[in-house]
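Practice record 12: protein with 2-acetamido-2-deoxy-beta-D-glucopyranose.
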Amino acid sequence: MMNGKIIPLFVLHFILFVICVPLMGFSIATDTISSNLFLKDPDTIVSSGNVFKLGFFTPENTTNRYLANRDKPLKDSSNTVTISKNGNLVLIDGRNQTVWSTNAKTSHVNTILRIQDNGNLILLDNATGIIIWESFSHPTNTFLPTSKVFDNLNTGEKTLASSWKNGSDPVVGSFTSGLQALNIPQLFIWKNRLPYWRSGQWNGQIFIGIKDAYHSNIHYILVDNHAGIIYITDYNPTSVLMKFTLNSSGSIMQTLWNDQKKDWDIVWSIPQNECDVYGTCGPFGSCNAQDSPICSCLRGFEPVNKEEWEKGNWTGGCRRRKKLECDQSNNTSGARGNGDGFLKLKFMKVPDFAEQFPSRQENECRSRCLRNCSCIAYAYDPNIGCMFWSENLIDVQRFAGVGYDLYIRLSTSELDNNKVKRLFIIIAVVMAIFCISILIFIVRCWMVKRKGGKTKGKNTFEPRKTISLDSTTIVLKDESQEVNIEELSLFTFEMLANATYQFHDNNLLGEGGFGLVYKGKLTNGKEIAIKRLSAASGQGTEEFMNELILISKLQHKNLVRLHGCCVEKEEKMIIYEYMQNKSLDVCLFDPTHPSRNILDWMKRFGIIEGIGRGLLYLHKDSRLRIIHRDLKPSNILLDEDWNPKISDFGMARIFGGNHDHANTTRVVGTYGYMAPEYAMEGIFSEKSDVYSFGVLMLEIVKGKKNTHYYNHEWSLSLLGCAWKLWSEDNGLAFADENIVNPNLEKEIVRCIQIALLCVQEFPKDRPTIQTILSMLNCEIVALPVPEQPVFAEKWNGLHGSSSQPISQVGFSVNEVTLSVLNGR
Ligand SMILES: *[C@@H]1O[C@H](CO)[C@@H](O)[C@H](O)[C@H]1NC(C)=O
Ligand SMILES: *[C@@H]1O[C@H](CO)[C@@H](O)[C@H](O)[C@H]1NC(C)=O
Ligand SMILES: *[C@@H]1O[C@H](CO)[C@@H](O)[C@H](O)[C@H]1NC(C)=O
Ligand SMILES: *[C@@H]1O[C@H](CO)[C@@H](O)[C@H](O)[C@H]1NC(C)=O
Ligand SMILES: *[C@@H]1O[C@H](CO)[C@@H](O)[C@H](O)[C@H]1NC(C)=O
């Protein structure tokens, strides 16, 4: 498994860095070394676009010199790199000894070495252009966006990154990382060749065991040539430089180059907690980072060694409490385990060692598993099909709000047991609610009597009290006006817990930017949505108050209505009206969702207009000037009549009347919806919202998500595709097949043109939301001609390569709002 050759090579020094910090030596003005040229320490060669350079370097706390000689430190700087007589790249020290060589079998005489702008160092035959050796196939501890991480199932060779021993010694350390493509592909970090972290299975879009993948903006594809050679590669749609590095303590860090700081910013890393470490809770154990202790046995299982388990040594794992019927019948009776049943566990990172069976139906997985006594669990994914497990369930984790349903086989007695228990709990809860209700009723009656029947307000959903004044009187800087949210209803934690059955998973609606959203039902039958901010989410009091103040002050048909909030100890919750049709995201982009077909052009246009009106209210009509900053489909909720309501104001900024735009040190928003000037420079204005609105319009017309969309034929993104078709007078071809109708052509094409006006590169070229609404209503008849959008082509990096992928899936998810790029 681990016999891939690892040849270290260090090429990660940015020329951008060099320009600012004068270095000794000089850069040879070339990106190439040919056989009659030498690279002498401390000279360097630089890629043609000034992005990467190659040269000797010294790690911190040492004086050793390194280039590719990871395990043979050089003591002085009398070393050279050149091309040997047989065409290999060689590193020669001061005593004329070969320290390192590419060792490729070659008979090429005329080879040259070139460093490319994507960070790849290639040795090629100058006459034929054949690549003899490349550094991307021999990474040290870093994967770059366009490098390909191979697993060759025929030869067992893998592209493996291996960690340094420590920060000052590049020699191969304990950790390696690469792709394991056998069965269902997974990424791994190994520690001394044993699994240390596992990405979970590839489902054609993401690795399903990485919690953040469900919301991330990393774009990557898995290519399978169906001949045993599989690779994964990722690419970066923006011009930001990115790398993944395996550090000496076994973490993979994703970093972005920050040109202002001249340094790398860490934007993501894995493993993030003990639960991410492979098999922390042992076989049949389940890890939940939010629980204390983090490990528990799966239901129906008990610790193998109770004492060790209670001491926090979970590696022994758990064992089955009640034998399966399968085991008892010894496969001789005809029943063959039909007496067993399955317990459903939601939001799981499913175990390692899954066996795949292609199937389009979840039911088939169940019946297949039931029929086979070695099958102890199954899960289903439309793309993977059935996943079956036998023997062991290892490396199971419970996520919050994302993940897969895992069905584990239990004996019916165990399942009944659970049912009985649950029934008891339900009865107890119902009794308790009943008693409390009566008590409240009595107390209220008594109070009403005492006040002589005087009741205040129209609190139909019975909040207990309102927030006390002094803690909530907030002065808005830009308005110098006191806002007090006295009218806001305060709910108690208990009320909300009861309304959601103690925040039971069955009531989970989804995961918002900063916490989980639950559906709840108050005792009076009113349905509500509750956003429960997780203490760990990093959404501070600032964003919380921001959202509260903003929404409580705003009232518009196309903005979500706030019912109240709850602030108790660590808990912060916001209560909204509940939306029958969930979010635009759910209704429009899930091809299997029934409402997709209900959304005809009339409804879609209504949604576009509604969002526009909501936005106009934010920008102009409300007393404040508000920039939403995070408009995207998951933030557009739909009521039962498909009226759109803008939600999630955690990011919104209030503007003083005399500013046209503002700069921010924290770029928050979602890739794919952020205007270029905002994503790159942190400048935001109403026009950045207009940009996001333009993207939304195109998505609604196309019925596809911007970041999930890629046109293979033309190598174009959603924006690029819209522009191409529109400028070729073929706009209707861009629209969703479900809504195309020649009678609507004028209207749809007009809508596409308006959207293209919104996504233009320069903010000044984009119309205001007022103008957009006038255009939509045809109050303005003649439309200007839009410029080509900047993010039109983004897959170039991939198509420049010479490989012939037979199947590939483009992917990116874009739910979570990220805050990166700490500039200025
Ligand atoms: C280094 O070794 C090569 C052959 O290995 C030889 O041709 C060359 O003259 C040597 N150079 C020096 C400076 O000793
Ligand atoms: C790194 O490892 C080397 C041994 O390989 C050791 O001599 C050195 O002290 C270590 N440096 C640090 C900073 O731990
Ligand atoms: C490796 O990266 C992780 C996550 O960024 C960090 O916590 C850890 O300190 C790093 N280890 C070293 C040796 O730098
Ligand atoms: C943890 O428990 C296992 C048995 O369950 C035992 O073999 C192992 O030595 C224990 N490890 C520690 C550190 O106590
Ligand atoms: C039962 O499942 C095991 C393990 O998943 C598999 O190896 C075996 O072929 C299956 N047997 C039948 C009859 O499907």
